[in-house]
Amino acid sequence: MALPRDVKKVVLAYSGGLDTSIILKWLQTELGAEVVTFTADLGQGEELEPARRKAEMMGIKEIHIEDVREEFCRDFVFPMFRANAVYEGTYLLGTSIARPLISKRLVEIARECGADAIAHGATGKGNDQVRFELSAYALNPDIKVIAPWREWEFKSRTDLLDFAEKNQIPVAKDKRGEAPFSVDANLLHSSSEGKVLEDPAEEAPAYVFQRTVSPEEAPDVATTITIGFAKGDPVSIDGAAMAPHELLARLNDLGRDNGIGRLDLVENRFVGMKSRGIYETPGGTILLAAHRAIESITLDRGAAHLKDELMPRYAEMIYNGFWFSPERLMLQAAIDKSQEHVEGTVRLKLYKGNVIVVGRESDKSLYSDALVTFEDDHGAYDQKDAAGFIRLNALRLRTLAKRQGL
Amino acid sequence: MALPRDVKKVVLAYSGGLDTSIILKWLQTELGAEVVTFTADLGQGEELEPARRKAEMMGIKEIHIEDVREEFCRDFVFPMFRANAVYEGTYLLGTSIARPLISKRLVEIARECGADAIAHGATGKGNDQVRFELSAYALNPDIKVIAPWREWEFKSRTDLLDFAEKNQIPVAKDKRGEAPFSVDANLLHSSSEGKVLEDPAEEAPAYVFQRTVSPEEAPDVATTITIGFAKGDPVSIDGAAMAPHELLARLNDLGRDNGIGRLDLVENRFVGMKSRGIYETPGGTILLAAHRAIESITLDRGAAHLKDELMPRYAEMIYNGFWFSPERLMLQAAIDKSQEHVEGTVRLKLYKGNVIVVGRESDKSLYSDALVTFEDDHGAYDQKDAAGFIRLNALRLRTLAKRQGL
Amino acid sequence: MALPRDVKKVVLAYSGGLDTSIILKWLQTELGAEVVTFTADLGQGEELEPARRKAEMMGIKEIHIEDVREEFCRDFVFPMFRANAVYEGTYLLGTSIARPLISKRLVEIARECGADAIAHGATGKGNDQVRFELSAYALNPDIKVIAPWREWEFKSRTDLLDFAEKNQIPVAKDKRGEAPFSVDANLLHSSSEGKVLEDPAEEAPAYVFQRTVSPEEAPDVATTITIGFAKGDPVSIDGAAMAPHELLARLNDLGRDNGIGRLDLVENRFVGMKSRGIYETPGGTILLAAHRAIESITLDRGAAHLKDELMPRYAEMIYNGFWFSPERLMLQAAIDKSQEHVEGTVRLKLYKGNVIVVGRESDKSLYSDALVTFEDDHGAYDQKDAAGFIRLNALRLRTLAKRQGL
Amino acid sequence: MALPRDVKKVVLAYSGGLDTSIILKWLQTELGAEVVTFTADLGQGEELEPARRKAEMMGIKEIHIEDVREEFCRDFVFPMFRANAVYEGTYLLGTSIARPLISKRLVEIARECGADAIAHGATGKGNDQVRFELSAYALNPDIKVIAPWREWEFKSRTDLLDFAEKNQIPVAKDKRGEAPFSVDANLLHSSSEGKVLEDPAEEAPAYVFQRTVSPEEAPDVATTITIGFAKGDPVSIDGAAMAPHELLARLNDLGRDNGIGRLDLVENRFVGMKSRGIYETPGGTILLAAHRAIESITLDRGAAHLKDELMPRYAEMIYNGFWFSPERLMLQAAIDKSQEHVEGTVRLKLYKGNVIVVGRESDKSLYSDALVTFEDDHGAYDQKDAAGFIRLNALRLRTLAKRQGL
User: Fold this and answer.
1) Is A17 annotated as a binding residue?
2) Tens digits of residue pLDDT in C84-121
3) Which one of A293, C365, C375, D242 is most buried, by most CB atoms within 10 A?
4) Which residues 6+ apart lie within 8 Å of C328 measured at CB?
5) Please, where in chain C does CATH 3.40.50.620 lie?
6) Is the CATH number 3.90.1260.10 carried by domain A182-299+341-361?
7) Which of B302, B322, B395 sits opposite D327 (nearest CB)?
8) Which chains touch C (3 or more CB pairs under 8 A)?
9) Which residues form the Arginosuccinate synthase C-terminal domain (chains A, B, C, D) (predicted)?
10) Which pLDDT does position D275 carry in this prediction?
11) Residue of D nearest to B398 (CA)
């Protein structure tokens, strides 16, 4: 449990913000380790060049800044949406799904540059530490992981600021006071939690929402769009083919403008406590509705119901940090198998927080007008078959009723 | 499979409408059976006295007209909502949950009045025939079930109308032409399907919606309400205690006015085909959100996740008509066990189709400010525990990684 | 439901026995259809040439006799054993798994020879009719299926024998009386049911068992064998590589001689009733134990537990006849994904009905001596990690206990 | 993580053996705490009075020695067997199920005698520490738990023996050397692991087995018994009613004499590693077979299959130590619901390791001769119903096949 003091070189997940800058310095001073920084553009909507300058300023020689938005969407977000993954009935796993990718790159960079450790800025109370570390260990069993928030001696914000000052880490004026809540963001979502949000009985203040307009502020007229799918993934909007991250970005814009994807919830963390969060997932909320709609005409009932039953486990795996586990890979294999013919288009109306499916069509549709019609179906379905179907389904229930003397 | 011609007395689920009136007459003339009618007030919003008059006119001597709204809510709808039951990710099972109650009363009345058969007006292509009949057989294994739509020789609407005319069944003018779609309604929902709705690519016409205003038409200002829960069931609105059916009716009004609970979907029927339906479940949609919210602070993670995993099966059982099956009773026992401490209040904003949870509180809350806080928690949680937690959770992943030579 | 009288050419699953010979003749005379026969060597241990002669004698021009044992093992039995599939805790699905293969060939032959129908000899009370027909419809949605046992007018054995006599079908003397029970056999198992076995309270007579010696009669000395696995499938016995069907045949011999694989059970049929069967699965019983044993050292816990949870559904799908369903393919994809590193050898002692695993080893073993040892593990595992692991796992339980006032 | 040094009074799970005697002394000397001992008769087959004398000798004033065998069987073992619980396909959870009971009594005694802590002798690598501690925390969230094996400084057996000698703890001569393996025993089973058993490729030496004769040594003639059940629990053997623990003891004798219940496995521990164990569960092995057999005629298919699907989760919960969790209680509620009519008798032959079900009968049997018979069933089952049943089950598969162009 004690800090692995024999670390020589460590790759830090570095945002350029105050906290990870303090961590950077702490790794240098306390551990005497060489620090390599990794800053990812996950679509969080922040400039990354300031992170480079800050790292340079602190003497970092190996600075990795990468745009991983396409990989993030293609290899993480979209596979997850194939499963219609929702944690605890509501949360679209926006933070959870980004962590494995960051860890993957940290481990890869460590391997490339001969580092023996990685470090992250997640606290000891949250899920993210678990996600970072399980992913890292799954990809390199011998990697050392440093989680300064669990290890250092700082007791308060003041201690941190003192350390910053002592080590000439510039502290923006507005960072002197504590932020009223904590934020994580990427292309899929923004989450806010802590401080002013800590009482789940209290409505979240309007200023917490940063990524969407409120339903009230959204336009009074619906926006209609069409999303095209192939093999279970979205591939176009209104007929225009797009790369995964471009498509998600476009959906985000549409969702943002129409007040879509806000969520206020209390969730169960893997580390055993409940926490309250405000999530904004504008594009993802649209995508989920659209994906379910295209599945509704292209997926067989057996496949659809099996997916629905497996989904909560799958979502839990991702939430808990087991993306790189054999059980997640097993479920992914099952899910991907189901998506082979999930293609076609879905038409949606976006209106003041609502995502309304109004039409779906597909060359691979299993919907059969001939079968379902109230009109003469010309023999496609023999209604008399239903009598036998019901009688055999009822047989065991009748046997039970007889036993009960009913 | 042949019609059981030796029926002496049959209890018919009778709405008073044209179709079941034709069935009534057909049972009298074709079967030569004495017909007893059962008409239930399930909250469908129709006068029932006309059904009595019509039945009398056709010579029925035993006419049962009952208000079962309270039983419906208390013993069927609310137990189902304890499970957060949703079929195929979206459908709140409004039609499915009413059928077992109707069958239960049909079978009970048959026993009381010495009838050997029951009859219903569901067609041979739908789920309702299955639900009616499985329920009936589960409650009386020797009951005979007559499903005229599967059995008679009528081939078209014209045949039906001819039969009506020949038998002096009054046909309202507006029933001469075929309805543009088919409707089922009860206190929980209204469903519309068929005809103009048969093409899932086409948006449903506005006139299909009968029970809710559209989000667009709903007020520009949100309505805020508080729902109180006890043992997992809603018991009050804005502090006013209400009987189950009164509470649901009030939620329906609130939902209707705020454009809440509309759903356009393609679902998989138990009989093997896909169908497209328009559902309006105004109160139920509010209730589901509220129930999940009160659970979010009063239900432990283990219980909550187990419920989420069991739910799709439970919903499927209800959809398929297995309400009175041992497996549904098993799951209900598990679900009810989980609800013992699900109590407290949830505050919601209803706004143009949105049900927005803004606060929840409970004397039985498991949410612990002390644990989750970003501030000093005075030892409630030792962040160093997380290191051991992660390392043991990672152990098997590291062992795997070593095997793979990672 | 009525017999499709417009059948022109039908492929019959033909065993050469009395019953399917009567069916053959009935198809010719009643339907006036041209009959093509298909007789498969599934390892049932019967000569197939007599079936050819009998078919020729009855004027059949297209006679298909095929050895499908290898395909049966490789593409049906072994994939199923990867899942450790067991129905209702005990039944190894020996009959269930053979039906889809037979249907597959019937449908293929029908396509090749221009037949519009297939026919089988399964009765209307059993599972096999369902398995045959679901498989056939899944592979050719337009195929007609004829199940004479459900359709003809014969009421008794005497009627059948009269028909046979009238149509010059030779009836072996010992077939004049009714068999005291009914048998199905293939390379995986033999099943016996009906008649003398119908009372589940009565012990099965010794003469029912045809494929194994009783444990009492088996040798007094154990036989030790080693089974080698690759990708989850058995590939060798005692170091000798074997083709799938040869390997299973060898295990059958070993099982038979050592009294292994007998089972007396009451099972739940898909058609809604319970039935009592006697199964003998000598090789399969050994294989299941060995497969679980090799998995025990090569499969990670997450994969293993997920497999165990999915297994009952998978087994039910096979039992119910849904081999060619999308949901079975989804689960197979998940299962196969888990088997990539399931390789190595298992040593077993076979003794009077017992299959005793005594050793297992693998280059891909996840068992770590270093981790588990009671001795000094040189830091492979830090026991102090367990404290944090337990405390975080306990956190939610402690929170619950506090609420309960414990 | 550091040892809670402020413990005043601690209840120790005390066996009277060397290890827990060392722990007792260590708690006195290192912690300066008053020690209360709890020694339970769980049916492990050891005299408990020596434990009293030893405790007295070490100055313990509060000594609790209790016979909990009946409670163990009635409230822990039997509820678990209602579920047919088996971990990883083979392990009957004999150790796992005893831990919660011990913790329950430790916590209760602590409450009664004003102790603020409990202590146990489980090591930091095993599952038992988790089971003890999760149970304790679930029953008293504020209890302190001391696990000396995780905390003390002893590095080797020699250190321990030195400490014993220095503190005048008598060490039996045969305990000077290390035991060749480690044992846990109770009325349900004995487990052996470690040391000579650590190589899973090596056959376990014969001397490891202490509770059963080998199949080879068992009698050459089968023993036939009848077990009676009520509400899913065994209540009699050969017609003689027995208390739970007496019945299990009798089954143990029968199993022991007939070489039944031996198991050699590699299992996945909750703490993340694989371990190899030898288990002997003579009576439990008989009981499991008998319970499945009585269920086979009294349990409906829906209930039976749901139980089979839930079982692996239920077993995992017990294995991992979550007996006192809400999710286990939920599943128990479902399982118990299913057992209401599980009554009747099962006849078994016990022979050289085999448990052979040869008959089962019940007044609540759902097995229907009339339905299943090959003979004329007088209309109990209309074979024509099967055609409709199959056709509707096939409908979605045919629709799929059409899409695929089959």
Assistant:
1) yes
2) 999 999 999 999 999 999 999 999 999 999 999 999 99
3) A293
4) C314, C317, C318, C322
5) 9-175
6) yes
7) B302
8) A, B, D
9) 181-398
10) 96
11) D272
